[in-house]
Design goal:
Blueprint lengths: L6 E7 L7 H12 L3 E7 L5 H10 L4 E4 L13 E2 L1 H6 L4 E5 L2 E5 L2 H11 L8 E5 L3 H12 L3 E5 L3 H11 L5 E3 L5 H4 L4 E4 L23 E4 L6 H9 L2 E3 L1 H17 L5 H12 L2
Parallel strand pairs: 1-2, 1-3, 4-6, 7-8, 7-10, 8-9, 10-11, 11-12
Antiparallel strand pairs: 3-5, 5-6
GO molecular function, one term: NADP binding
InterPro entries: Aminoacid_DH-like_N_sf, NAD(P)-bd_dom_sf, SDH_C, Shikimate_DH, Shikimate_DH-bd_N, Shikimate_DH_fam
Function: Involved in the biosynthesis of the chorismate, which leads to the biosynthesis of aromatic amino acids. Catalyzes the reversible NADPH linked reduction of 3-dehydroshikimate (DHSA) to yield shikimate (SA).
């Protein structure tokens, strides 16, 4: 029940209609008996600054930040955690007495989603598609865990900027095209773009470049067309729901200071996915 004491948590995104975060968090709040409510906000690029200022004006306790705002939001915050600053992207904001601090829980969320599926990272080679905020967090997470990365983006300069940012962490190389000479070197391919969010989106990679030995990961949820094609080929497929769950667990703990009810959040996510 919403009262005058209810603390509001939200998500700023464009688009936002697909988000499963409200279901996950509201179920967790209810399970722990917390007077919190998580709501979605459709925030377009031109209104991001106003939306961030509104967090203070409306006394919103915290928000998630997702596509396409993870990088642009940084300049409007009072503080940024060292890890989020290093990654160059924020996906979680805490409003602590009108001080807005940004965090990145995506890197941890991605790594835990792989470990939960028994996918090895150390000494393995990854191809990451994309160069936005999610890609930065994923590349950072892989390198910190001892993996190696090839990165591709349509705008080569953005991929090169990621290489420069993280080159001191381990092996990272930019590729200008994706063909079999690239995909045959790697064990895991990660779509870190938003392609697949919309039904008419093109696939981020030709299925012909996949082989059954590949692990295919996608940050988009639920199942995309390329995920279905990868499954037909025999790839082990990991959708964006794993990363969604584990980044949500970390964000929940930042906002509440309490241990997240992981199993409740996982059951809720599975339930909404099967509707």
């Amino acid at each position: 029940m919403i009262t005058g004491k209810t603390k509001i948590i939200g998500i700023f995104a464009d688009p936002v209609e697909h988000t499963l975060s409200p279901s996950i968090h509201n179920e967790a709040f209810q399970y722990l008996g917390l007077n919190y409510c998580y709501v979605p906000f459709h925030v377009k690029k031109e209104y991001l600054k106003d939306a961030i200022f509104a967090i203070k004006a409306l006394n919103i306790k915290g928000v998630n930040i997702t596509v396409p705002h993870k990088e642009a939001v940084i300049k409007y915050l009072d503080e940024v955690s060292d890890e989020a600053k290093y990654i160059g992207a924020v996906n979680t904001i805490l409003n602590n007495e009108e001080t807005l601090k940004g965090f990145n829980t995506d890197a941890k969320g991605f790594v835990l989603s792989l470990k939960n599926e028994k996918i090895l990272i150390k000494d393995k080679i990854f191809l990451v598609l994309g160069a936005g905020g999610a890609a930065k967090a994923i590349v950072y997470g892989i390198l910190k865990e001892g993996g190696r990365v090839y990165i591709y983006n349509r705008t080569l300069a953005k991929a090169m900027a990621i290489k420069e940012r993280f080159s001191n962490l381990g092996f990272i190389e930019v590729v200008s095209i994706i063909d079999k000479s690239v995909t045959e070197k790697v064990q895991t391919i990660v779509n870190a773009t938003s392609l697949g969010l919309k039904k008419d989106d093109p696939m981020p990679l030709s299925p012909e470049l996949l082989k059954s030995e590949h692990v295919y990961c996608d940050i988009v949820y639920p199942e995309t067309h390329l995920m279905k094609e990868a499954e037909k080929i025999g790839c082990k497929v990991i959708g964006g729901t794993g990363m969604l769950l584990w980044q949500a667990v970390a964000a929940f703990e930042i906002w509440t200071g309490l241990q997240a009810p992981v199993e409740i959040m996982k059951k809720t996510l599975n339930k909404v996915l099967t509707k």
